Amino acid sequence: MAETMNIHIRGGRVIDPQNHLDSIEDLFISQGEIVAIGKMPEGFSVDKTIDAENQVVCPGLVDLSVRMREPGLEYKATMKSECAAAAAGGITTCCCPPDTRPIIDNPAMANMLTHRGEEIGLTRVLPIGALTTELGGEMLSDLHALSQAGCIAFSNADMPITNTLVIRRAMEYASSFDLLIILHANDPWLTDDGCMHEGEISTRLGLAGIPEAAETAIVARDLALIEQTGVRAHFARITCARSVDLIVQARERGLKVTADVAIHHLHLTDFDVGSFNTLCHVMPPLRSERDKNHLREAVALGHIQAICSDHQPHEKDAKLAAFSESEPGISGLETLLPLGLKLVDEGIIDMNTLISSVSSEPAAVLGIDAGSLSVSSQADICIFDPAAEYLLDESTFLSKGRNTPFSHWPLKGRVSHTIHAGRLVYPVTQV
Amino acid sequence: MSQNLQYTDNGNLRHFLSIDGLRKETLEQILTTAEKFTQFGQREIKKLPLLRGHTVVNLFFENSSRTRTTFEIAAKRLSADVINLNPSTSSTSKGETLLDTVNILEAMHTDLFVIRHAKSGVAELIAQHVPEHVHIINAGDGQHAHPTQAMLDMFTIRQYKGPFHELRVAIVGDILHSRVARSQIHALNRLGIHEIRVIAPNSLLPAQIERLGVHAYTDLQQGLDGVDVVMMLRLQKERMRHAYLPSEQEYFNLYGLTTESLAAAADDAIIMHPGPINRGLEISSVVADGPRSVILPQVTNGIAIRMAIMAMILGGDNNG
User: Fold this and answer.
1) Which residues of B273-299 are buried (b: 16+ CB within 10 A; e: fewer)?
2) Which ipTM was obtained for this model?
3) Residue ranges of B 21-80 with Cβ closer than 8 A to chain A
4) Chain A residues inside the 8 Å CB shell of B208
5) Gap from A200 CA to chain B (nearest CA, Å)
6) pLDDT digits over A346-395, tens only?
């Protein structure tokens, strides 16, 4: 583990949306905390200087969905490999869905993940607890005990809860302790054996389609239950324009519900599936061009608060199969920021919106102290060169998952340094 | 994309995976070549030495007697060595992947694989992973494509009805689950058909089917009005269990092809069906066995079409 040092980050464009800061400043770190922005504090002895001229210095990224595959699926990836990938991607907080094997439905599992994350020390690992035991959708997990053990929120991951009464009770119970529920809106009956967006392409390819209503019907249902129970709730991975409209209407009525989108849904559509490209097999599926554009607009307007990587690393064989049989997901940790910067470059969103949507906003969704550069907060910092241009080469990923549909995409913007809890975690300089 | 995969660098047919992505000239060449082979099928000695020394493996992950048999006959008439494998009952299920199976057979110097699989996209997946000298013919993949069936249908239409640009064609039945319908639609459009109609209740019509260049009808009479060709599709009985349809009876009443419902079509309209037929479910026996039915000639033509496609693919190797 790298040492905490007195670090002087010199001459970078410091962007901290939460503190409305965007100017060229020096930043000083000591004992794992940010101690000053602007002038060097008196008696500060510099152990290391990082030249950040022509670079952006922003809060370390907070990613709402990262599958580390450990425990249980270590042939896909390990916490060690994925924490290193997170650091390389400028991500200093990773929320891990509960669908590990075993499932995070007991405090021991939650503790194990948190401690393993601390031991690796490259990024903060926050487990999301299972809302129901074994994600079975029937009995509630010990939500309070799980939250005491470090679970930052609760979800049923991609497993549906089909009994509406169970969802209601889960929301009621969680609201008693102000616990956050993360909802994956997907009607399993409407989705059935669907593997891509229902539309022209699914028709051409003869693949079972997933209709828009599989998402919108559940968003509508869950909004009604959120309104009734008053639970703190967040919609994960919204893909449809009409879901956004439903959420916006609910927020206008005063509901404090939030939502996120995966970065790939802001760049790809069902047309990218092309001729059975399994790298574009994701769940929820890539939707239409209209949906993509609406999602982009929603991020720009703040209707969708957070962007996440929805990181799902796979071994090669997982994608070497018939489309419907291939495993869904994209290895996204190391492309979250550059793909976000692509949106900035294309004029879809501005730099401050991008940075808040991957740092302060997801931190606010979770209600954690992260995603800002406030003095005396933990020094979680990402420094990137916004002008670096390159073609994405997934063979350089630190993630064990090389499954990305963005291979050879021209990208702009590359992380140069990541600091987590005052330690330089990327690039790794020592052996 | 299949377009590039299906042709060699010098424009010969390399794989035959999907009608989508093939040039009109290729389709016409298949029809012309098949024409020569039909005459040949009537001779007493039905063997040509075109594929002598070549090994053809019929790799049917999904059962089919008719299609496999016609491929086998076609390959044998061209003097190829033919091996039939049905891996769903022999190897695969225990950890051996699809590509493992193909690699093993390829190591035995197979020249051509004829592949049928229950999942869409499998023929293409395999074609992406075989070396250059190995060829793939798609004998049906999931609900995606069945291009040799579509070509034998085109051949039959041309044989009985003449030029495509004057014809109206109706495809009736379970369009949603039909790889045959998808390939027929692409082939008819590529060959310049005047109009394609698809007829089914909305529960059996796939999303945005009009984008494939068809007009959709939910009413059989309206859809059949004045058409020159009626192409029926097989209805799987399991559709009732999954609530696509209420009952066989109601389906037959509304969408079954009978002497009465056929009256809306042109007087000389022909009736086609890819088989096997569910008599009394999608078509009445009177119509299926009637004078306008070309269902049996379709089967016969299937051999010539498959000979033509194999000869074009492997013949290209000899020339090159």
Assistant:
1) bbbebbeebbbbeebbeeeebbbebbb
2) 0.93
3) none
4) 199-200, 203
5) 5
6) 999 999 999 999 999 999 999 999 999 999 999 999 999 999 999 999 99
